[in-house]
User: What shape does this take?
Amino acid sequence: MTGPMIPIWEVFIRSRNGLAHKHVGSLHAADATLALQAARDLYTRRGEGLSIWVVPSQAITASDPADKGMMFEPAASKIYRHPTFYEVPEEVGHM
Amino acid sequence: MLQNKFDSMNHVTHTFPMHPNEDAGLEVRFQERVDAEERIEPNDWMPAAYRKTLTRQISQHAHSEIVGMLPEGNWITRAPSLRRKAALLAKVQDECGHGLYLYAAAETLGASREELVDQMLSGKAKYSSIFNYPTPTWADIGAIGWLVDGAAIMNQIPLCRCSYGPYARAMIRVCKEESFHQRQGYEIMLALSRGTPEQKDMAQDALNRWWWPCLMMFGPPDGASQHSDASTRWKIKRISNDELRQKFVDATVPQANFLGLSLPDPGLKFNSETGHWEYGAIDWNEFKQVLAGHGPCNRDRMAARWKAHEDGAWVREAALAYARRHS
Assistant: This one.
């Protein structure tokens, strides 16, 4: 009964002028044109966007959640990368 | 017995034996994350039973949205005005969208869309029993929007905080869109209740037929439901069937009063001490019968799904053939 597999696409929408495209979900479509049309029907029924990107899911490479520590911990330990690490007297004013 | 055949709209889940090789340490860490209200994402480690429970619940929820288009679709061409027709068409299109969001969420757990649809068509996977009742009059469209969507919203709001990220996010989107569904249903009921005596009778008749099946949408009474423990522990299910049912009754009785319609329950009475409306005994035998496939429309619904699937086969094939030729 199972028919041929129809590829999965990830959908990104720019909600307003000046904002970045943001991931909103996924869908199945045979090709890019159909994916774009389906994304418009499925994810913008209430004026959610001004622009849509569709990307084949297979084209996305994701980091492994198991590597979270190795990947992101070093960023958390470098507090000198944040402005609050540095002491500037109040008299100097906002900097 | 009853619970084993139960569908996802009611959020009753099952416990599965642990695989002996499953890492107990991972299991403990997983539960800690859930307890800390962290969201579990598709590539995170999760117990096999959690994955299985969610796949079934989310896919059956998706099937319910898709089958849910059928009773209302029945009235699109016969809606009494262009305004009503446009609203109903938009609502049915939303239900389709909700089904698709939910299938996508279920697929993040590893099942393919094709497998999930096959499980529905073969009868292996259930959909909500409420859609096995017929819609003989226009008032049924009002009653469905007001009561069926109202009950679905009650069920779905706690799911917006479900531990599984993709399901919770799909539910947030669904809940946002559903509030129009309930309001359009109530507006239909209001227009009929304030119309001719025949129209008011039609509204009353629809309410009489939908009230009890709607109370059944929340699933078996808490005492009879042995399977929700794991779901509660996993923070998939956050509020019990009976609590949700009570919330629904408390919210709906005053709305029925405002319409000037009566609820078909002679046992219904307000308890001023608890502040809740008490309702009469639910006929769980009817529920079991409908679940077992003996409801008024089970066969029609399955036949309609099969026909849609088969009639669409050439479209799917043609689209794939075209894509192959142009890639």
